[in-house]
Amino acid sequence: MLLSIIIPIYNEEKNIALLYNRLTTALQPINAHLELIFINDGSSDNSISLIKELSQKDPAVKYIDFSRNFGHQIAVTAGIDFAQGDALVIIDADLQDPPEVIVDLFKKFEQGYSVVYAKRALRKGENALKLLTAKVFYQILSKITSVNIPVDTGDFRIIDRKVVEVLKKMPEQNKFLRGQIAWVGFKQTYVEYEREERYAGKTGYTYKKMIKFALDGITSFSDLPLKIATLTGFGVSGIAFILMLYTLYSRFFSHNYVPGWPSLMITILFIGGIQLIGIGIIGEYIGRISSNTRNRPLYVINESNIKEKEEISIL
Question: Are the CB atoms for 205 and 71 separated by under 8 Å?
Fold first, then answer.
């Protein structure tokens, strides 16, 4: 069989050589032909040059060079689009996900599972804030979505070709691949591992990108925020109606009121704030609908050595 390894790259020049060596060494026990697909996601360092050097020495090394930075999930999607393997492995280039774990994933895969994902038993080198926000995000996501998205997992996993074919029919712009793979179904399981510290370089996932990624996950697999906005609107309207009755009672019956603007301003600001929150939530969903209706390519390829590609821009 052919096993495709999908590796998104963004400014990873210090990790590429070691990653390649560890991958080729670790995967020797696996009885499969290999293709290593590096997707250069608009790196500003020397990453693409190093990948090209590897491709000249090893024909199993393939590369896709984007015209600019399109994002991690889009880079993985491009690898999925071009991979020819009977099974695909998704792994990042920072060596936090040890390539040696792929052997364990493959053993589980051979038992008849369509998806085997790597579950983090321990996350080394990550600060308390990162761990806390990740834990809160996954707990919220697991509670508000109808899809059983595994907790404490990333994109590090092996997937069968039949899962790949379904993913290629899901062209939404705001990708959340771990959720899409969970949605596909089939027989899935996991292997636990200890996530290592980043070997070199800086992570491309800033807090801004993490927030966007979290919003993509929530809005792609749950309409609960819209329901919350609706219920909050009804709740605030109820409170406002009670305050209105109290105001009328104080004015015409008890005559116990103090004329002035404090209560009026508090009410206006409270209701206005709730309205803005509701509009913002609705806007997030509408923005994603707009992105998909434009039907722009997910990515644009500058250069690639994959002969099977049919066009430069892939929808």
Answer: no
Opening angle at CA 76, ends 75 and 77, nearest 5: 90
3-state secondary structure 129-184: HHHHHHHHHHHHHHHHCCCCCCCCEEEEEEEEHHHHHHHCCCCCCCCCHHHHHHHH
**How do beta strands 188-195 and 115-123 pair?**
parallel
CA atoms of 109 and 113, how far apart (whole Å): 5
Instruction: Evaluate if residue 215 carries a pLDDT over 50.
Output: yes
pTM of the model: 0.66
Exposed/middle/buried for residue 253 (C-beta within 10 Å: 0-12, 13-18, 19+): exposed
What is the chain's length? 315
**Best-predicted range by mean pLDDT (61-65, 242-246, 306-310):** 61-65
Residue with tokens 């996950």: 217
Mean pLDDT of the chain: 76
What residues pair up with 292 in beta bridges, in sequence order?
none
Which CATH architecture is the domain 2-204+301-314 placed in? Alpha-Beta Complex (3.90)
Q: Hey, what are 219's tokens?
A: 């809005």
Give one word for 305, left, alpha or beta, with left for phi > 0 and alpha for psi -120 to 50: alpha
Concatenated DSSP letters of 238-301:
HHHHHHHHHHHHIIIII-----SSHHHHHHHHHHHHHHHHHHHHHHHHHHHHHHHHHT--SEEE
Single out the residue of 141, 34, 10, 18 nearest to residue 89, CA to CA: 34
| Segment 257-283, tens digit of pLDDT | 566 545 665 566 566 666 766 776 776
Model confidence at 85, pLDDT cuts 50, 70, 90, reads confident
Q: Across-strand partners of 37?
A: 6, 62
Residue spans per domain, the chain: 2-204+301-314, 224-294
Closest CA to 3 of 24, 27, 23, 33: 33
pLDDT grade, residue 200 (50/70/90)? low
